[in-house]
Amino acid sequence: MKKFKRYLVTSALPYANGPVHIGHLAGVYIPSDIYTRYLRLRGEDVISVCGSDEHGVPITIKARQEGVSPQDIVDKYHGIIKESFRRLGMSFDIYSRTTSPTHHKTASDFFRKLYDDGKFIEQTSQQYYDEEAGQFLADRYIVGTCPHCQNERAYGDQCEKCGSTLNATDLIGPKSAITGSTPVLRETKHWFLPLDRYEEFLRKWILDGHKEWKSNVYGQCKSWLDLGLQPRAVSRDLDWGIPVPVEGADGKVLYVWFDAPIGYISATKELTPDWEKYWKDEDTKMVHFIGKDNIVFHCIVFPSMLRAHGGYILPENVPANEFLNLEGDKISTSRNWAVWLHEYLEEFPGKEDVLRYVLCANAPETKDNDFTWKDFQARNNNELVAVLGNFVNRALVLTQKYYGGAVPPAGELTAYDRETVAEIPVIKKSLEENIENYRFREALKDAMNLARLGNKYLADSEPWKLVKTDPERVKTILNVALQITANIAVAIEPFMPFTAEKVLKLLQIGKPGWDELGSTALLEAGHVIGTPELLFEKIEDSVIEAQLEKLATTKQANLAAEMGKEVTPQKEVVSFDDFGKMDIRVVTIKEAEKIAKTKKLLKLTIDTGIDTRTIVSGIAEYYTPEELVGRQVLVLVNLEPRELKGVLSQGMILMGQDATGKLVLLSPTDKVGSGTIVG
Question: Where is the binding site for ATP, in residues?
């Protein structure tokens, strides 16, 4: 395996049209920070770069919705994201932005070199143009009726109701989302990167040369290559972005997918005048941390751009994660179905490492995974408090109690002592292998195994029982326990930097390097430790219930909004005589039972005031038979009888639907006589 002189770690640029949520953290940023911190502890030459992705159509849409400029939007969210990352302990060497002058020049120069070298092809196509606004329309600025499901609010790239991928020209009755006018088709010219020219290179580089990549990454790359690559536009008609630096390209900007990855290069330029050694020296190992939705851009498109330009190294690995769901539902920015980092930091002060720990322990490394608040609570209480916090606290408290906080000298080690300390380098080796192969969940287990080792050692040795009969033995036990504690501070630093710092402060020692992990001489005899403090605290049920209630409120609001969008239009006007033909009465339910071999149907016996009859109703999912007996409801009693599952149904119960989609019985507010006519 090649030994590299330096490392360049990049993290996907978060899009600056909203804050960062836990899905982003679990997919990209926590893994990136673990890897970077590990390399720093090893004393490697490493830089970590990131920044805000600030161009593209969603930014302009957000700006129009809020009545501000695109610059206002990116300034707002760049600030929120950057500060949130800082507070979470993300150790980027630079967090830049794609609206910076350095980035504009870098991206323009990159495009111009490819243009001058004849690496692009020019194509003319028909696109929608808004004559009132005087501009070509991006797909998201075109709305119309979906040809598949007749949703009247489909966008030019996708119908969010049925999920179909669309072209703007597929829409029925397209309208401009800017002016509401009907757009016209006009010719427009754009530049394309012919990815098909790089297929042979990509096949050899990825499929033959990088079989060690994660299966989800390798598999997606192979799928794209097997389908055959097509030219991809690198410019578009838009007034927000980096202008295409070519004569006759007025009103055209670099497509955001082309502009954004160059942000890694421009950020490195801003960081150091020696940027080229990180981008152009084969002794540099470049690793891209991304989510699975960015695999094609970082494994196929960006490498093709770098290859077309020439002189740049390619990534050695792209350890993309899958998606993290929230309480069984897909995280959605537009539906506010997320745990936002900036809100978490306000609501859980001092618990940055709890979030880092849980998101790593539950990371979607090989498949989509689910974050739940109950699991968050359980991992905090049962692992951080009961395992890690418990061991460190016991080791420090016993030292304070028996020796006034001075590290006792170790006497002769027993076979069990030697067996215990011999486990530390074994754990270290596994920890290193897992981090270097991007298995961060397993690496975190390794780090926690040091605390489990310490807990078992104290439980087996029982120094609190031996202190009166064999005080010399207790000195050795606590020396070993404290050495394990110091080792823990090193091992957990990539995962939980705030906790590692707190342990070192409690031990009153400086930060050891990675090469010192495994040593049993990190603390000298006689060294005085600090006053013990708890590393973690239990999270109570009430705290979790508040978060679940917050999500429930969001879900209700989303359902209500969806129902508002889907309100059924008024039906045809009917005459008063037609309405008069309907006999709607208040009835009383006398008996109710489920109909065998059905999930939804109930057989109800009702008193209509006229007679006692049977009605079949599809409400078994929402009401139990016991709940219904004795209730008064509204029924259309003169509906033509119909046989359902062998039961003759004579009438129909009138119902509504609440914000959650649940069917709700309509009842009089006061009790009235059965048979009372409604009209």
Answer: 333
Give pLDDT, residue 620: 86
Residue 236 and residue 109 share a domain: yes
Residues 405 and 493 in one domain: yes
CB 550 within 8 Å of CB 433: no
- Of 305, 321, 337, the position where a domain reaches its end is 321
**Does residue 650 lie in a domain region?**
yes
Q: What span, in angstroms and rounded, lies between the C-alpha atoms of 236 and 610?
A: 71
Q: pLDDT tens across 349-392, in order?
A: 999 999 999 999 999 999 999 999 999 999 999 999 999 999 99
Q: 427, 442 in Cβ contact below 8 A? A: no
Q: Which residues belong to the annotated binding site?
A: 146, 149, 159, 162, 333
Location of structure tokens 């807990």:
455
Average pLDDT over residues 234-246: 94
Q: Which domain holds residue 611?
A: 576-678
Are 78 and 242 in contact by the 8 Å Cβ rule? The answer is: no
Q: Which domain CATH number covers 478?
A: 1.10.730.10
Sequence ranges of the binding site for Zn(2+): 146, 149, 159, 162
Contact between 599 and 634 under an 8 Å Cβ cutoff? The reply is no
Q: Domain check: are 462 and 402 in the same one?
A: yes
Q: Across residues 509-520, what is the average pLDDT?
A: 96
Q: The domain that contains 102 carries what CATH number? A: 3.40.50.620
Tell me the sheet residues that pair with 235: 254
Q: Give pTM, 2 decimals.
A: 0.82
